[in-house]
Each structure stands twice: as C-alpha cells, then as structure tokens.
Amino acid sequence: MDEVARAVSTAFTLSNDLRRDTEVTILFVANPPPRARRVDLVGARLRYLNPDERSTAALLKNALVRSVDFPRPFESSPGLTVAPSDPAADLRAFLSRPNPVWLREDGEPLALWASPGGEVAAVVSDPYDPTAEESDLLTEAGVARVSVGPRILRTSQVIDVLHRELDLREAAGRGPATAPP
Ligand SMILES: C[S@@+](CC[C@H](N)C(=O)[O-])C[C@H]1O[C@@H](n2cnc3c(N)ncnc32)[C@H](O)[C@@H]1O
Predict the structure, then answer these.
(1) Integer-rounded Cα radius of gyration of the chain
(2) Which of 12, 91, 76 is closest to 44 using CA atoms?
(3) Nearest alpha carbon to residue 161 among 100, 95, 113
(4) Three-state DSSP class for residue 18
(5) Residue 123 CA, ligand 1 centroid: distance in Å
(6) What is the pTM of this model?
(7) What's the gap in Å between 69 CA and the centre of ligand 1?
(8) Which atom of ligand 1 is nearest the CA belonging to 155?
(9) In terms of domains, do 103 and 34 share one?
(10) Mean pLDDT of 57-76
(11) Ligand 1 centroid, distance to 91 Cα (angstroms)
(12) What's 149's domain CATH number?
C-alpha cells in the first residue's frame, strides 16, 4: 500500500495543485474475484488527496474496506470509485484506451518513443512484475514497450519521469495537448 499510495500521489500532485487531466486505475488483485477490486481516480473530480502519502493510503484503504462484499461500483470519495474487478477484463478495457504503452525496464528508450499526442494510457506494475497472464495480454495487444532509463526504478519514479517527458512534449506542442475539459 505504501508503494501504491506513493504512485497515486506522484501521478496527481504538483506543487500546490493537482494534475486535473490525469486519471489512475489500480487493480488490487491479491484476492481473486469476487474479492479483487479496481479503484479509479479521476483528477478532474478528485478531492481529499493531500501531499502526504499516509492520508492517500488511508483514502484508498477506506474505499477498499467499504467495498468488501459490496457487489457494485460506488464513489467512495469525490473522484475515487471502487468496484469489483475481473482483473483480465479490466486490463483489456484499459488497453483499449487511446495510445496504450507498457512501461518496462527493457523497453524502447523513452526519447525514441514517438508519442502520438493526445491521451496516453500507461501501464506500470507494482514492486512485483506482471503475472504471466497479464504479460500475455499486454503482448497480444501489441502494446508499445517503453523504458524510462537503464535502472530499475520504483513505480512512482517511473510515473515522475513519464510525466516530465509528456509535460515537455506538451510544452513543445508535439504531445498530449488536449487535456479533457
Ligand atoms: C519496482 S519495478 C518492478 C520490479 C522489478 N522487475 C525488479 O526486478 O525489482 C516496478 C515497475 O516499474 C516499471 N519500471 C521500473 N523501472 C523501469 C524503467 N527503467 N523503465 C520503464 N519502466 C520501469 C515497470 O513497470 C516495473 O514493473
């Protein structure tokens, strides 16, 4: 949970602001269905996300606890929805979003990755590598594999590096210039 909270915090927080054009989907798959859970965070609506990761972890834990045995998606706090998950189906759905990319230590260097502009749907794993089933899904979907550097980084660090690159490309007018309204 520490790593997940740090990744969520890094994905959304700026200095005294939030990235309102960012969304994060987390698959909690330690328990198989029907107890597996998906948490969706939508930057445009998010509230109560503070810079300290302890409170982010509490926000996520609260959502997970409240959703135990609850069979339908619900908004646990503004911009944070928790739902039962079929992890493979949810990963497939995520990969059907525009411009999916799989962040991997052994991928194509980020500088060489020709981001198509607009939305990017990036997949990162937690401290454990994707399962064989998840890797197969990603491979079959033909998702671009991109590396942000030669070192194995923490998930949150990878998110930081990718955000920076996309920020630079946006600023230079050749990347995701179309933030949702
Ligand atoms: C802590 S790493 C996973 C564990 C790692 N395989 C190990 O041997 O310790 C978490 C995730 O961040 C991403 N990642 C780590 N380093 C990366 C890099 N240099 N480029 C792209 N993604 C990276 C991958 O998605 C990876 O699965």
Answers:
(1) 16
(2) 12
(3) 113
(4) strand
(5) 11
(6) 0.92
(7) 32
(8) 12
(9) no
(10) 94
(11) 18
(12) 3.40.1280.10
Ligand 1 center from residue 101 Cα (angstroms):
14
Residue 152: CB within 6 Å of ligand 1? yes
Token digits of residue 175: 């990347």
Residue 45: partners with Cβ closer than 8 Å, 6 or more residues away: 78, 79
Domain count, the chain: 2
Q: Residue 180's pLDDT is what?
A: 44
Cα separation, 84 vs 64, whole angstroms: 10
For 64, the token pair is 């997970």
* Phi, then psi, of 84 in degrees rounded to 5: -60, 150
* ω into 34 cis (within 30 of 0): yes
The response to whether residue 18 sits with its C-beta less than 6 Å from ligand 1 reads: no
Ligand 1 neighbourhood includes 81 CB (under 6 angstroms) = no
Expressed as residue numbers, the domain containing 37 is: 1-85
Q: Do residues 57 and 1 lie in contact, with contact meaning Cβ atoms separated by under 8 Å? A: yes
Question: Is the confidence at residue 178, as pLDDT, over 60?
Answer: no
